């Protein structure tokens, strides 16, 4: 009887020990709002990242990554956003096709990463970009005053002068007969959308490749024989023809302003810079608020 009792006690001890080991292996590492991060998820993440999952000193760093990802996934779900494995596979296939397998693998090694870490980074970035696009939509306003102040501070002073916005059409007389040239000139004068017409002529090879939108420029930068003619040509009208060897040139005057050509050329670039700065600050605050308002309980 006593022997049977000892066997029973040993069995209970062994079963209890095994239960505890199971809880440690498959227990809960953390809770984010209503979602659970398992200890096995954490260990798999550490192992996939190329680190030692048995070293508990690694837990804090990698658990934070999983918690941040879980917050993004929960928010994305509320917005109807999803980043699937198939999406990541497509990105990888595209990059391998573009760069080649060897270059792709070498670049990963140079960065000190492995494929798991690269795909983990893609998932985070795609979620952030998709959420961010919704968060900043219609919330960022950039004024001309801001752009001008940025230009003065980071580039140079503004020197204004008479500028013209031009489109150029160049015809090679050797490639077309007179009737075709007259037809093109007539169409340029009567067409309400010269840019579309120029594109069609370029696609059909009827005009030369240097044809197209020149943007705003100082007319004094052109040949002296063209300056006065262009300045005296009304907006939406044609200046020309101008002859140079076998080439015929027409300038379509799209607009006239008093301004700085370098500032105008830099304007779109500056707008993007200011937009990115504002978007970063807006999103940084928004994501911080997302973390602050989340329920996070770490269990390890």
Give the biggest beta sheet.
Answer: 4 strands, antiparallel
Amount of helix = 55-70%
What is the 3D shape?
A: elongated
Oligomer: single chain
CATH topological fold name of the domain at 160-259:
Chitinase A, domain 3
What class would the helix/strand composition place it in?
A: alpha+beta
Notes on the protein architecture:
This protein has helices at residues 2-26, 39-48, 59-79, 85-99, 101-110, 115-135, 144-154, 178-190, 194-203, 224-231, 261-293, and strands at 28-32, 35-38, 161-172, 212-217, 238-244, 247-259, 296-298. With 300 residues, it is α+β, with helices and mostly antiparallel strands. The strands form two sheets. It has a four-stranded antiparallel sheet, sandwiched between helices. Strands 2-1-7 form a three-stranded antiparallel sheet. Strand 1 (28-32) and strand 2 (35-38) form a beta hairpin.
